[in-house]
Design a protein that fits this description.
The chain is built from 17 helices and two strands. A two-stranded antiparallel sheet has the order 1-2. It has 438 residues and is mostly helical.
Length: 438
């Protein structure tokens, strides 16, 4: 969610529900709340929250029946864990007053000073509490996305320790670098409309580190790990797609033309990703599958995320088609490398986030969003380089810190289930439950 461009958009008369730039500037100066914008972002926040249960179902359907509840719990419990972290530390670290372009200070600890007046720096037509809770939903789903990489083999409590430390040491700093006033990547001109870098590149790099540290599932390469409930995965896909309209559309931070642009781009890229993935499956494997359709849709949605508010419909379709091809090939490659990314987090979210971030530097146009930038196709060669720097910095930092966290936690308390417990399954061993009583 490109916070800084959101402020610039409204100062240029694009948002606020009013066509008079003078009136818009007056609203900003007076700090008045725009009710339409507030209602829109509250609804968008609810949609983004819905994505986490949707993700839980998406992942849950793809694992074996003995692990479905454990897999769902790893995503679903992030709502509690990350929300409490966000209130006391996360919001202030991410968006609090800048310290050297690297992190926010803790002056907003426990939401001290965060009230219902608009912030002078972020989303100036809605209460700061609304901006805070909207951002909280992004912080929740990001560590939940990582869980798909090590599905069926990581213990619940060590994962919670990792998720909490990861939010503090990775998500909050990267969020500040890219989206906060004074963040050093934002100052450099790196753009990320709704989370290509902050959400998808970070979760993809962390997922890569997790696969390296945790290792493959017992029997990987010899045992078939067939999804136990594909209808559940398709239901999760639908909820994710629905929520993504709040994820991307709400990142305009106002009920305005940019929100409409992002909404349309989100849908078109999602459908194009699904279309191309299914075509690739049919061409390469001889069959079009429901799992492929779901994977392609998520690939398209993830890939358009950083660019959604900066590109037009045709560019969004092109980005979705690229996602369908590139992410499909990335997922196919993992089996050749014997890389057990259980639910394709690296191949879909990580690769999609990288491709989308770079595509912003190619397809962005100020004719679509005057507060944005022109990309390579509009004659601006420098933006693609800035986007590439963002990818390298965010991906590299996340990979290193995630690997260190995982290695330390594994050495202290142990991340993995024992071989015996892995045979029994997460549901029984970790939660004393079963999803399907006979």
């Amino acid at each position: 969610m490109n916070v800084l461009s959101g402020v610039r958009k409204r100062s240029r008369g694009i948002g606020c529900g009013a066509g008079d730039p003078v009136r818009i500037i007056q609203i900003i100066k007076e700090g008045k709340v725009n009710k339409a914008d507030t209602a829109f972002i509250l609804a968008a926040a609810g949609l983004v929250l819905l994505m986490t249960p949707g993700l839980a179902l998406f992942y849950g359907g793809m694992v074996r029946g003995k692990n479905v509840l454990g897999t769902i719990m790893q995503s679903f419990f992030m709502i509690a864990l990350v929300s409490i972290e966000w209130v006391y530390l996360g919001y202030s670290m991410s968006f609090g007053p800048d310290v050297g372009g690297v992190i926010g200070d803790l002056s907003w600890f426990a939401l001290n000073g965060v009230g219902n007046a608009p912030s002078p720096d972020y989303a100036t037509t809605i209460p700061q509490t609304v901006f805070m809770i909207y951002q909280c939903m992004f912080a929740i789903i990001t560590p939940a996305l990582i869980t798909g990489a090590f599905a069926e083999r990581v213990r619940f409590v060590p994962f919670l320790v990792f998720a909490l430390l990861w939010a503090l040491l990775v998500y909050n700093p990267v969020c500040h670098w890219v989206w906060a006033k004074g963040g050093w990547l934002a100052q450099m001109g790196v753009l990320d409309f709704a989370g290509g870098l902050v959400v998808h590149v970070t979760c993809g790099a962390a997922a890569f580190a997790a696969v390296l540290v945790v290792g493959p599932r017992r029997g990987y390469g010899r045992t078939s790990f067939m999804p136990h409930n594909l209808p559940m995965t398709l239901l999760g896909t639908g909820l994710l797609w629905f929520g993504w309209f709040g994820f991307n559309g709400g990142s305009a931070l106002a009920a305005n033309e940019v929100a409409a642009t992002a909404f349309v781009a989100t849908h078109l890229a999602g459908m194009a990703g699904m279309l191309m993935w299914v075509v690739m499956e049919r061409f390469v494997m001889g069959n079009a599958t429901t799992l492929g359709a779901a994977s392609g849709a998520i690939a398209g949605l993830a890939t358009i995320t950083p660019a959604a508010g900066f590109v037009g419909p045709n560019a969004a379709i092109a980005i979705g088609l690229l996602a369908g091809v590139i992410c499909f090939l990335a997922v196919r490659l993992k089996s050749r490398l014997k890389f057990d990314d259980s639910l394709d987090v690296v191949g879909i979210h990580g690769v999609g986030g990288v491709v989308g971030t770079l595509c912003l530097g190619i397809f962005a146009s100020t004719q679509v969003n005057p507060a944005g930038v022109d990309g390579l196709l509009a004659g601006n060669f420098s933006q693609l380089g800035k986007q590439a720097i963002g990818v390298v910095v965010v991906g590299g930092y996340t990979l290193v810190v995630s690997w260190i966290l995982l290695k330390v936690i594994d050495s202290v308390v142990g991340l993995r289930l024992t071989e015996e417990d892995e045979v029994v399954g997460l549901d029984s061993v970790e939660h004393s439950e079963t999803a399907y009583n006979q």
